[in-house]
From TrEMBL:
Belongs to the glycosyltransferase 87 family. It comes from Gordonia defluvii. This is Arabinofuranan 3-O-arabinosyltransferase. The keyword Glycoprotein does not apply. Keywords: Cell membrane, Membrane, Transferase, Transmembrane, Transmembrane helix.
């Protein structure tokens, strides 16, 4: 290389190029999703019913007196969640919503940082801006900010739980989980990881104790806990047929036979159980980070599919599983898994108003687009679970095939 070539073709590392690309794009996506789309909001507003409910709580008025016959967003947090969310009502609705969005963005950035560190990378590496980009390009994060709901803090709770389990600090892991379980019990399934990791069962004490204690305190402060027990709690246990991407919700919407819904649920529970067992059996001691993150994704994806309620933006809890792709041994290193990720995290819209008049084209194009929109998240979760299951199943069968010949040779000898 000549002296001139050194200036004309300066050497630049691949990592530096990736960071130069990802940082400006990621920063602008954070700005756009939070300051522009988040502040603008949308027709669906998850923040308004929460604000109004905790405002009634602070004024000693009934909190759980609304009708659940409509399809509008309802206030469904338990009394412990009401107590924790009460501070948002000390500001006027507009400023409170802006502060909540800012705190949500901070929680997402901190989640991306902890996830980067959990996988052994520095914040100065190319991984951190890439994780941020993937976060904010997803429908899960975008609609969490646009609808302004609690899910950013649930993701931070999950990543914090995995971080502290990895550091073998069960009390902090349990506290991280307990504070969000008190509001939304979405992360209850991952408590199994604390039981499967030696000496980490202590995490269950604060994880379950904090919601119990907060409920006991709030129970004396909420004036209509009878309404919560007689109306809200039964509603939470129902499988509603709108805004529900679980097997039960979508099956009910499309009129599937109850036995078929049950069979599908059992099938995905069986796949999830195998995946959790296989990862625990073969990866816990070899790669604990892969075991924790992949297992958390399998447990949560299974609960989204087979539980009474699975909403599209819950998919953000699968980020730790998705990130395992950079780890050797990840069950995410295949294209069907990523097609599933696209399905459950895409911000693409499939609604269409086109109705071709040509006799050679399908006439019900609008209905096709609507059905595809309804099904996208469910088939995304399903395909992701199936791809992970078969990826691990083939490894299990390969291990058995590799071991049996050795056993036979030993017996013959």
């Amino acid at each position: 290389m000549t002296i001139a070539d050194r200036y004309l073709f300066p050497p630049v590392s691949t990592e530096r190029i990736i960071k130069a690309i990802m940082w400006p794009i990621s920063i602008m996506m954070v700005f756009h999703k939070s300051v522009v789309l988040g502040i603008n909001g949308d027709r669906t507003d998850d923040f308004k019913p929460v604000y109004e409910a905790v405002l009634r709580f602070l004024h000693g008025q009934p909190v759980y007196a609304e009708s659940y016959l409509t399809v509008e967003p309802h206030y469904l947090y338990p009394p412990s969640g009401t107590l924790l969310m009460a501070p948002i009502a000390y500001l006027d609705p507009e400023r409170s919503r802006w502060v909540f969005i800012a705190l949500s963005v901070a929680a997402l950035v901190l989640s991306a940082y902890l996830l980067t560190r959990l996988f052994g990378y520095r914040a100065s590496s190319w991984v951190f801006p890439t994780v941020l980009f993937f976060f904010f390009v997803s429908e899960s994060v975008a609609n969490t900010l646009i609808y302004t709901n609690f899910n950013s803090f649930v993701l931070l709770s999950l990543v914090g739980f995995l971080w502290f389990l990895r550091q073998e600090r069960p009390w902090l892991a349990g506290i991280a989980l307990g504070l969000t379980i008190a509001v939304k019990p979405v992360l209850l399934p991952v408590l199994l990881l604390a039981l499967l990791k030696p000496k980490m069962w202590r995490a269950l004490i604060p994880a379950l104790g904090i919601p119990v204690v907060l409920n006991l305190i709030a129970w004396r402060m909420v004036v209509d806990t009878d309404n919560f027990m007689s109306q809200t709690f039964p509603y939470l246990r129902e499988t509603r047929d709108y805004y529900n991407s679980s097997i039960g919700g979508l099956g009910t919407f499309y009129g599937l036979a109850p036995w078929l819904i049950l069979v599908l649920r059992v099938m995905f529970v069986a796949m999830g159980a195998f995946g959790v067992w296989f990862l625990w059996r073969y990866y816990r001691d070899k790669d604990e980070v892969l075991w924790l993150t992949a297992s958390s994704g399998i447990l949560l994806a299974t609960s989204f599919l087979v539980g009474p309620l699975g909403q599209g933006y819950y998919s953000m809890m699968l980020f730790p599983l998705v990130m395992t792709v950079i780890r050797p041994g990840s069950p995410m290193r295949n294209w069907p898994a990523w097609l599933g990720v696209y399905g459950c995290m895409t911000f693409d819209i499939y609604y269409t108003i086109r109705n071709p008049r040509s006799e050679h084209l399908p006439q019900n194009w609008e209905g096709f687009g609507r059905n595809l929109e309804y099904l996208t998240v469910t088939w995304g979760w399903s395909l992701l679970m199936i791809a992970v299951f078969f990826s691990l199943l083939w490894r299990y069968l390969d291990l058995r095939q590799a071991r049996w010949p050795r056993v036979a040779a030993t017996v013959e000898a």
